[in-house]
Amino acid sequence: MSGTVDAGRRHDGEVGGGGTGGAGGGRPFGGGGRGDASGDDVEALLRARLRLADERIETPPGLWDRIRPAGNEQGPEARSPRRWPSAAVLPRRRPYAIACAMAAAVAAVALGVWWLVRPGDVTPQPAGPPATVKITVYNSERACRTGRSLECALRLAKDPYAAYAARDNSAGRVWHGDGLAARCVVTDGQMVRDEAGITSTRWYLVTTGQGARGWLPGVRTRNTHEVPVCPEGVK
């Protein structure tokens, strides 16, 4: 920096007036004709000189323009310590904080609603066998309605569309009065005539109590319950 500092005249045995020093030819900062001025007076005089010099220092023109960072419109006297965010920054952060708080509140409400209406523990149930309808075997021959002789046995067929009496079309035997579980029925199978002359093209897909599965001709039962029609391709 440039400036003028008036540090005063150098004193050689004179402070504001005449006086002679000791044999040393004069002591600095001496005065009043005393060669041993007290240290307090010297210190006070020095402080006064320094204060005067400080007051006379002037800031060179254009100094702050040269040292101020680019884009900063405030001088050094307008700056504030960067200890905390300035008040101008806080309003810009407030909407973000409000949005975060609202999102947290919505999430908390949604979690509470889910907790209240959440489904209970669901254990998947294994697929059971399809529903069946119970039907009873009927033999039109009165003599075969008692006993379980081979002569009175009725055949279950493997294929309702094949000849009922064919040697390879047998899936098991049933007798009059046996209870069977009917799964479904086809209505366009081979026509069968019983001993009383009754005919039918209906065939029931049944399972016996012993686990045998086959097709029972409609003339071999007097079913009075509705049995669903078999899906295409069921055997």
Automatic annotation (TrEMBL):
Residue ranges of the region described as Disordered: 1-40, 62-84
TM segment ranges: 96-117
Gly residues: compositionally biased ranges: 15-36
Keyword Transmembrane helix attributed: yes
Record's keyword terms, sorted: Membrane, Transmembrane, Transmembrane helix
Protein name: DUF3515 domain-containing protein
Organism: Streptomyces endophytica
